[in-house]
Amino acid sequence: xxxxxxxxxxxxxxxxxxxxxxxxxxxxxxxxxxxxxxxxxxxxxxxxxxxxxxxxxxxxxxxxxxxxxxxxxxxxxxxxxxxxxxxxxxxxxxxxxxxxxxxxxxxxxxxxxxxxxxxxxxxxxxxxxxxxxxxxxxxxxxxxxxxxxxxxxxxxxxxxxxxxxxxxxxxxxxxxxxxxxxxxxxxxxxxxxxxxxxxxxxxxxxxxxxxxxxxxxxxxxxxxxxxxxxxxxxxxxxxxxxxxxxxxxxxxxxxxxxxxxxxxxxxxxxxxxxxxxxx
Length: 279
Known about the structure:
The chain is α+β, with helices and mostly antiparallel strands. It has helices spanning 6-16, 20-29, 34-51, 83-86, 89-104, 111-115, 127-138, 176-192, 204-220, 225-243, 258-264, and strands at 59-67, 72-80, 143-150, 154-158, 164-172, 249-250, 253-257, 267-276. The protein has 3 domains: 6-51, Ubiquitin-associated (UBA) domain (Helicase, Ruva Protein, domain 3), CATH 1.10.8.10; 59-183 and 269-276, 2-Layer Sandwich (Tetrahydropterin Synthase, Chain A); 199-261, no CATH class.
């Protein structure tokens, strides 16, 4: 290995995070040229990924990025093979970088289009190159499986383990205090999983079925027919408070509904996008 020193190998290892023997082989193949060796290692990693593409990716992370003032929000799902990798700092940084680029960049219509864009954190590298480099270090297959961007003011929240995340589209107040409320509303959606934003958006068949169940129960109690309808309306309010976002008691303060919280903050909730990892 004339001309290639142990210091050269260590320097390449520091740059790539790969084993010493692989770095030594790369430098040998490339005549000691560090830049060429890095590219050689990357290409070898891509070949290895292709051979492992049929592996099951049963875990990963969801990440969100929002900027209420700029009026944009993004959410991505990056899958991998094991929980230790999904919980590693490098994996967390990568998925967060992807969400930020999706939000602040030109947008993307597919995961492949996003991966071809430059990273927010490392502007000289594409997200795809960073993903390939991380595969080389972790030796697990990754898949950017879902992306979503909303070009409107949003609140966003991702659960600490990356298993659940939400974007809530809003209109109205864009002040810093509203941004915190918007995040809280997204967090509430993750925690309580409402079926609809408002009563009007709830599937009519669900309401009809609930009304039927409540009517049968009230009649079985022997209640007079003339008050059954009033009883049903009262009990439907409880049903709505369980499955409609704006009617639900706010998870951090159950003395007010999410609708009341939004109104007092000058916010109108337009839509919600609630993801669970793998679904």
